[in-house]
Amino acid sequence: MEELLGVALRLTIMYFYALLVLRLAGKRALGDLTALDFITTLIIGDMFDSVIFGDQSVPAAMVGIGSIVLLHVLISLVTLRNTRLRHALLGDRPVALVHSGRLQRKNLARQRIGEHVLAALLRLQGLDLETEKNEIKLAALESNGMLSLIEMEDAKPAQKADLGALRRLM
Amino acid sequence: MDVNELLLIAFRATIVYFVVLFVVRVLGKREVGTLTAFDLIVSLIIGEGVDEAIYGDVTMDKFLVLVGSVAAWHLLNSWASYKSKLVDRITGAEPRVLVKNGKLDRKALAKERMPEEELMAELRLMGVDEIKEVKTATLEQNGQVSVLLEDWAKPLQKGDLPASAKAKG
Fold first, then answer.
1. Segment 3-32 of chain A within 8 Å of chain B by CB
2. Which residue of B51, B78, B159 is in closest CB contact with A112?
3. Where are the beta strands (DSSP E) in A10-158?
4. Is this model's pTM higher than 0.80 or not?
5. A162 and B158 in contact by Cβ < 8 A?
């Protein structure tokens, strides 16, 4: 019974600590993750477990988790304005995979992305690589591993403004 | 728990942090944003090792070996899958077409052990009203269903409008 209370108590303490810590770590630790956010979430995720079950003492866990978050915040601040440093440390420059309808083969090779994988990534965006290649202005692999897609002007969704003069006739 | 021990934990946490940072950096973007299950597994394995290392339950050299081995194998897997179609097929399930030209492929659905209800839910989540709107629906390697619409069902694009209409009036 006492053990169970211990678990409940530690859980409560760590829960509020987690809230505080995530607040400090910032929104992006929860949403789309850049490499930096990913690391932080990865590391602290596991650390909460062991303390809740009593394998580690609460102060030990707090120091451990706190250190990781502090490092995260520190690196975020340091790399915030210094672009060169950020690219060197985190490698988070987006990589163009398709530009103006043409496959960027060098980049694809460097990222070890085969053409069938590229096709799959584009399918997930609703685009058929074979037939609609020329609609792509830029398809880039972003730092969080997702593919961003920008269409050629004509392929963009129509806006009310495009109807222009026609609208007055309708 | 004395101050020295706590400081030691902070110190180990710092080392672990930069080790993981380096590994994630080296493995590259695709390993961070997942398309195959391996990426998730790697994260879990490293995550577990991190916990032990920070608290000192495992010595730092063992941790480095763990991380190094996992990273090395993952890199090898990634490279081999890229070079060889056979390896790719073994290590990652092939994408399977579930709907072709508006028609549901029940055999394919059965092979993936996916109930029709679930597929319809996925389509709805993509804003698809009727199955005939779908040219190709594919169950991708990462478990997501991708949808390519029939031409007539696609949203209107700027290029679809007659040129005269586009002139702002």
1. none
2. B78
3. 95-99, 102-103, 136-141, 147-151
4. no
5. yes
